[in-house]
UniProtKB/TrEMBL annotation:
Gene3D superfamilies: Dihydrodipicolinate Reductase, domain 2, NAD(P)-binding Rossmann-like Domain. The keyword Oxidoreductase applies. This is Saccharopine dehydrogenase NADP-binding domain-containing protein. Residues 386-396 have a biased composition (Basic residues). Residues 364-396 are annotated as: Disordered. Coiled coil: none annotated. Keywords: Oxidoreductase. Residues 123-343 form the Saccharopine dehydrogenase-like C-terminal domain. It comes from Variovorax ginsengisoli. InterPro entries: AASS (IPR051168), NAD(P)-bd_dom_sf (IPR036291), Sacchrp_dh-like_C (IPR032095), Sacchrp_dh_NADP-bd (IPR005097).
């Protein structure tokens, strides 16, 4: 058990705000939500206190960390190293949502001799997808192939890119432009982004998938020597990959990422009408027989503390809030670097927010959704419940 009485969340954007509200609603724990920009409106919230903080001000960051036992970093990945170093120096546990490989490497370098936890990559991918991959790997005597696929998609894609932004523009550019870790025929490899193209049908819908960076986190290291082929790919609607290849390669905007960001921000709309798809396929030998096992979850948006949240906001926040609970209750190591796959999937699904990913559990397990607190009334409508159509009565 780790005593955590106060949590500092850095970054009051859509995801950071959802993390703070989810902590408050499901754990009734005081949260400080800090951002460089002042809040647009004053809010009287007994559990979430908002404050202004510039993390590049070393003294101000240290002062903000004081009095908190855990820091959740929801800032852009460029700030991860600085913030993690400050947390380690002051003995504050550190979690973040980064998908950036270099940032994770820097954080790992801080872990030697640390008396607190340094656990980056606590979102969806990397994050929950790593827990799922490790869980499926452990279900085979001889694991041949493990394929992990995640898509954060707008529900309605009508432009030439077949895509609207549902999360960070910088995060998307980062994962489309950096090498991608994988294992091929038992050997670790560095694959090129946008390559490894495939199409697949999930629940009757057609998607394309291709390599993107960072989604596996540390899973390649964990499964080295235990799997023949391991890869992570992003799901998109057909046509998106070719359009992005034109921008990044043919027009060479991958070499001018500031300009690429301007083009995308100017031309591609943001959408809050989204869906998150999580899919995993594993195959190998069980008791001498070749078998395959798949898991899939489709996550929708909903309301949390009276505010509409997108699917990617809820899915990402649930990842790190579930890890918070596992850390607090002693089901994760209490110090040093911790990889996502060190969290057992079944433990994560049993947390108060695990119902977000309930479909990834054992088929037929029938696990009941968790409530925020025993005996507490739901203050929101998330996770969304299936709607039942009212039966039409015949007219006399």
């Amino acid at each position: 058990m780790i005593s955590i009485r106060n949590v500092l969340v850095l970054g009051a954007g859509k995801v950071g705000g959802t993390v703070a509200d989810m902590l408050a609603d499901y754990h009734r724990i005081p949260v400080t939500l800090a951002d460089r920009d002042p809040p647009r409106r004053a809010l009287d919230d007994p559990l979430v206190r908002r404050t202004v903080l510039d993390v590049e001000d070393t003294a101000a960051l240290a002062a903000a960390l004081a009095g908190h036992q855990l820091l959740i970093n929801a800032l852009p990945f460029q700030q991860a190293g600085r913030v993690a170093a400050a947390a380690r120096a002051l003995g504050v546990h550190y979690l973040d949502l980064t998908e950036d490989v270099a940032a994770t490497r820097a954080i790992r370098g801080l872990a030697d001799g640390a008396e607190t936890v340094l656990m980056p990559q606590c979102g969806l991918a990397p994050g929950v997808i790593g827990m799922l991959g490790a869980h499926l790997a452990g279900r085979f005597d001889d694991l041949h192939d493990l394929h992990l696929r995640v898509g954060a998609l707008s529900r309605h894609a009508t432009n030439g890119l077949r895509y609207n932004f549902t999360w960070s523009i910088d995060g998307l550019i980062n994962e489309y432009c950096h090498p991608c870790a994988a294992i091929v025929q038992g050997q670790p490899v560095s694959a090129q982004p946008l390559e490894g193209y495939e199409t697949l049908v999930l629940d009757g819908d057609t998607y394309e998938a291709f390599n993107t960076s960072g989604g596996l986190g540390t899973l390649c290291e964990t499964l080295a020597g235990r799997v023949r082929n391991l890869d992570y790919k992003t799901l998109r609607y057909p046509g998106h990959r070719d359009a992005m290849a034109l921008l990044l390669r043919d027009l060479r905007l991958g070499e001018r990422r500031d300009l690429l960001r301007q083009v995308l921000e100017h031309a591609v709309p943001h959408s809050r009408e989204d869906v998150v798809i999580v899919f995993a396929s594993a195959s190998g030998l069980r008791a001498g027989r070749l078998e395959q096992e798949t898991r899939m979850a489709r996550i929708q948006g909903g309301r949390l503390r009276g505010v509409d949240r997108t699917a990617i906001e809820l899915a990402t926040a649930a990842g790190v809030v579930g890890v918070f609970e596992l850390l607090r209750t002693g089901r994760l190591p209490a110090r040093g670097f911790v990889g996502q796959e060190q969290a057992a999937l079944e433990d994560f699904l049993a947390t108060r927010v695990g119902s977000c990913y309930a479909a990834l559990g054992e088929p037929g397990s029938g696990a009941a959704p968790a409530s925020p607190l025993r005996g507490a009334a739901f203050a929101h409508t998330w996770p969304p419940q299936p709607r039942r159509r009212a039966r039409q009565q015949p007219q006399p």
